[in-house]
Amino acid sequence: MPAMAFQTTLGWSLISSGIVTLILKVLPGDSLWWGLLFLVIGVTVLYIRS
Question: TM spans, by residue (predicted)?
């Protein structure tokens, strides 16, 4: 993977994890289940795109 692509991926990962953290503060219920749900959605999206 080229360095630029890696930096972009890392940047988006940090941004999205920051957004998810903020969402988890707002959402009701246990953040563990929300985290697992987002993880499953993320893996599914990556699987579909590849």
Answer: 31-48
pTM of the model: 0.44
Q: What is the 3-state secondary structure of 11-48?
A: HHHHHHHHHHHHHHHHCCCCHHHHHHHHHHHHHHHHHH
User: Under a CB-based contact definition with an 8 Å cutoff, are residues 34 and 27 in contact?
Assistant: yes
Cα–Cα nearest to 25, from 35, 12, 15: 35
Q: How far apart are CA 31 and CA 38, in angstroms?
A: 10
d(CA 16, CA 19) in angstroms, rounded, equals 5
Residues in the chain: 50
